[in-house]
Predict the 3D structure of the following.
Amino acid sequence: MSATTQRQAPVVLSARGLRVDFEDSPVLSDVSLDIAPHESVCLIGRSGSGKSTLLRTAAGLLQPQAGTVHTAERTVMGFQDSRLLPWLRVWKNVTLGLAIPQSEARQTAASTLENVQLANKLDAWPRQLSGGQLQRVALARALVRTPQLLMLDEPFGALDSLTRMDMQDLLDRLHGEQKWALLMVTHDIAEAVRLADRILVLGDGVITHEFRIERTNLDAHHRPVGHAQLEDEVRAALE
């Protein structure tokens, strides 16, 4: 058994031989993976395949029964639920936990909220925001910590299709600008193809398939050429 520890580049995450059991039932059997700096990796699989368990183990939130995990020093985790504190204004939610003066925190929040197109919501209460805006604030809260590795657990799963595509565009733009690595769980095949350099398919506690995506030739919706065929291949891997 080994706790999550820190490790610098050339990889921002390295996992070897992970096994996680819940009540003596294996959820992850023998999982190994590496993520390089600036790489975007999506985990996909059927319900109960172990996607969220793998993410939480990689983030250090779950202790594996066997195997090791090493992560970059600045690894940040985000969830489907925005988890904002309703009694704090947006800017205070964004900077909660940062050890900086309040005046500096407000300016830092303002700059980060501008990056996620919410500069006008600095002093808003969470209850005043739409679902998409709440997710943007949650993303700002992660990015204000200047991650080397950002882990997201189905962050857009509760959003309507148009808002979801807007959030995909935003995440893709920020990933390109800020150069962090991304490990994201999603149940949406098209979303994975649109965002990932690699797609890992989980089944029966192991990685069953890996798809590498060439992203040099993209269409107007930022999808790789041949995306429909690739989506069909990923869908077949899930059967």
